[in-house]
Amino acid sequence: MLTDEARIKVRAGNGGNGVVAFDKIKMSLGPTGGRGGNGGNIYFEGVSDIFALRRYRHQKKYLGRRGQDGKGNKSDGLSGEDLILTVPIGTTIHNLTTNKNLEIVEVGQRILIAKGGVGGRGNFYFRSSTNTTPREHEEGRSGEEVELYLELKLIAEIGLIGLPSAGKSSLLNELTAANVKVGAYHFTTLEPNLGVMDNIILADIPGLIEGASKGRGLGTKFLRHIQRTKILAHCISLESADLKHDYQIIRKELENYSQILAQKKEIIILTKSDLVSSEDIKKKMANFPIEKEILIASIHDLSSIIQLQSKFKELLH
Question: For residue 313, what are the contacts with CB-CB under 8 A and spacing of at least 6?
């Protein structure tokens, strides 16, 4: 199951303490206490695995490594090792402590989210001409602690949308190398699926229903996954008794959810043409006066799949 949101707390490592030490071997009694190491930072790094947020479902708190304490002989402690937390590309990191938002949009992109505490100074750093045997030292400072809300919005150029059982998943399987579950019943798709077609990423989101923009049927969770797309491929089954009605249901939910989403470039794909006679298709098309480009596709018709692939490439370039 796709985990597309999580709430966690992270705390970077504390700095190590400075120490009090003297050089007794050389009989100078000079201060030699070193500085504590800095605490480890915490970073987020983007990965291509869309399931990477799963690790945050159960473990909710992450701690950075503490810096080592200083040592004698003017030796500083080692800094704590940094902690790297991975998230899928497309993740927005909402920092609930600072009210700042950051986005991970590329594989390997790394963002500092909590800085480790600075190590404390040992007594070597307090020496002076008037204080040759200082016993002062500092404790390491605390690492930053923040509360975060992680929200995944899939990165895909094309989003397949439509009512349940509109043939979106079957179309994704034919257009890409995806092998997602399909079935002759509503809500076969329960989470977004991705497929790749000639380096073009397609996202198939579960069927939307009336009220999706208000959260009905987990609609808001699904709609956010097509916010980054460049093109919406609106799938409508030719088995429907009223193509225009089906189309308007989805358009209304897009507009209610986001005007930016509603204004994205859209292509209409009439699916399941192999299940309807040519005569019925003509009648339904006549009653579907939509001034947008319409393509008819069948997963059993290779030429229509090739035509659709070409159209997607054309719209993206």
Answer: 198, 200
- C-alpha radius of gyration, the chain, whole number: 29
In this structure, the answer to whether residues 136 and 214 fall within a common structural domain is no
Both 169 and 146 in one domain: the answer is: no
Encode pLDDT of 101-135 as tens digits: 999 999 999 999 999 999 999 999 999 988 888 99
Per the structure, the complete domain to which residue 9 belongs is given by 5-152
Nearby residues of 3 by Cβ (< 8 Å), 6 or more positions away: 51, 53, 54, 56, 57, 152
Half-sphere exposure of 200 (CA within 13 A, CB side): 21
Q: How many structural domains are present in the chain?
A: 2
Give CA–CA dist 95/147, Å, rounded: 6
Is the pLDDT at 35 greater than 90, yes or no?
A: yes
Instruction: State residue 40's pLDDT score.
Output: 98
Q: Which of 99, 126, 152 is the last residue of a domain?
A: 152
Mean pLDDT of 228-255: 92
Residues 196 and 286 in one domain: yes
pTM of the model: 0.76
